[in-house]
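Workshop exercise sheet. Pairs work together: one partner reads the sequence aloud, the other fills in the structure field after running the prediction. Swap roles for the next sheet.
Pair: D.N. / O.F.
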Amino acid sequence: MRRDHAEAVTEAVTEEVHEHDRGLSYDLPVLARRRMIRLMAGAGLIPLVGCTSDGETSADASAKGSTGSASPGSSAECATIPDETAGPFPGDGSNGVNVLKESGVVRGDITRSFGDSAGGTAEGVPLTVTLTVVDAASGCGTPKKGAAVYIWHCDREGNYSLYSDGVTEENYLRGVQETDDKGQVTFRSVFPGCYAGRWPHIHFEVYGSLADATAATSITNTSQLAFPKDVCETVYASDGYERSADNLSGLSLETDGIFSDGHDRQLAAMKGSVARGYTATLTVPV
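Structure field:
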């Protein structure tokens, strides 16, 4: 009876989830495990501590009413970035096409398609994304030099290159980089759109090395970056994001299927404007 009930719940969730979120049903056990960990932490059975941008733990930040990302140099205990679904459109070979093995995927500017694809360019408000990969075991104090990060996200229409109708021949908004001495990678992109059922986000995978990334093997971490509501609302009031504005109006971080169980360590720090473009930064403990 319990198995039948679980299967029925999974089928119900799958039917309600938007096409872009098919991957959520695949990862219900992961999400359930994360919720259980948080419940145990709340009961005092295990520590659940994250890092903030100035070296505080998440518990300290919570007490002060603030949140943020860790920075190298912190000696506080540091939890790894939460595991999240890669979704149905990863392009890493786990669901059809594998862009990671294509020449040209290692790049900083991901706004254009490369190789034998259609050669299109993603339009939208400019966005620069910097991820700082650090060693969680060191308390976020040691940068992970020589690791690699693969990021991908939808365009301003909510479509994913390689998968969505009309852009299956494109591979823009996907790219890989090796972390530098500071553990950082920086990508030039455009602000992603908001499609029905999901809060605006960027997917990313962390690999032990660039060789692992371009061979599409040995993923160490898979997670997602979230955007603050006020920035999303400002961007979506600009030309080209009309559909995103409508979709965002019915969503919140607290009800999103991915971020509802906690988003403090995945919420990007943002600066900029629609006219000048935005920067998004996040520390990624692994």
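Discussion prompt: The helical segments are 2-16, 22-26, 28-42, 58-64, 210-214, 229-236, 242-248. What would you look at next?
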